[in-house]
Amino acid sequence: MAMELRLPVVRKPLSESLGRDTKKHLVVPGDTITTDTGFMRGHGTYMGEEKLIASVAGSVERVNKLICVKALKTRYNGEVGDIVVGRITEVQQKRWKVETNSRLDSVLLLSSMNLPGGELRRRSAEDELAMRGFLQEGDLISAEVQAVFSDGAVSLHTRSLKYGKLGQGVLVQVSPSLVKRQKTHFHDLPCGASVILGNNGFIWIYPTPEHKEEDAGGFIANLEPVSLTDREVISRLRNCIVSLVTQRMMLYDTSILYCYEASLPHQVPCPGLPFPRPPPRYRDRVVGADWIRRTALSGVWSTFSEILVMFSMSVPGLGGAGGAWWD
């Protein structure tokens, strides 16, 4: 009868073996990733005393013999084909400067965009003079990364009708590492709102349009009044995204929708609540009047009411039957 005996063997730690089918390997600056000299160092690593050492805090990623560390919180590093949401910061000669959460301002060339109406022709001097009429400082746009220069700057284009100027909505800024890469980053959620998950960490939430203006060429923004129901949905989606970011969870359409559905039972009816007034020290000032105006026009009234009620109920003496905290 044959018998097979196996003796215990000391296993190599993860930092030395760096297996491909293991869990995520988290490191901090100064940690030894591997002592095997057969690996090549990538971003976030450096060689020291024949060891590969991490220079940033993040997760170790391996592609064949290349090892790099993906930082948990960093600036956006553009890649060709990425979908980004940015803000126009400057109008220059035949180009716009765009803030895209990267180390350098991105560039949108006049020749890399559709003309109003989708007209296909060469850009003329009249088009250059009318650039500020197309896009001006402060406008939000959605675009695609066309090229990445040697210094890390990003070149954008908006040649598709799904890109262009953004209208009414809410902008949420998160870490680019939390946005999951997908085939499409434009999602129409069944709750009545749509989101654009920019690879650069800028997320745009807006009411789902009934019909899209295809003849506008991406320049006509919808400025119709947004209903209270849509504003409540947008506010709830925004808070769901912030909650997911707090827990360091990946952001994509399914995770946002699951979080939204889980938050529906937790709500406070708004009609029975008093209109918020500023603290007494601001009532007789212009600041107080401006505070009321901005509160009334904002789309986060339901969220503010929930926070206000929870705050007054959690702290004794700040609410209840006798009145509210601002009285």
In short:
It is built from 7 helices and 17 strands. With 327 residues, the protein is an alpha+beta fold.
What is the topological layout?
Layout: H1 14-17, E1 26-27, E2 32-34, E3 40-41, E4 45-48, E5 51-54, E6 58-63, E7 66-71, E8 83-92, E9 95-99, E10 106-113, H2 125-129, H3 131-134, E11 140-148, E12 154-158, E13 164-165, E14 170-173, E15 186-188, E16 193-197, E17 202-207, H4 228-246, H5 253-263, H6 286-297, H7 301-314
Parallel strand pairs: 3-7, 10-12
Antiparallel strand pairs: 1-6, 2-5, 4-5, 6-7, 8-9, 8-11, 9-10, 11-12, 11-13, 14-17, 15-16, 16-17
Helix pairs in contact: 4-5
Question: Can you walk through the features of this model?
Answer:
By secondary structure, this protein is an alpha+beta fold. It has three domains: 26-71, OB fold (Dihydrolipoamide Acetyltransferase, E2P) (Beta Barrel), CATH 2.40.50.100; 74-166, Beta Barrel (OB fold (Dihydrolipoamide Acetyltransferase, E2P)); 167-296, no CATH class. Helices cover 21% and strands 26% of the residues. The chain contains seven helices and 17 strands. It is globular and about 85 Å long. The termini are far apart.
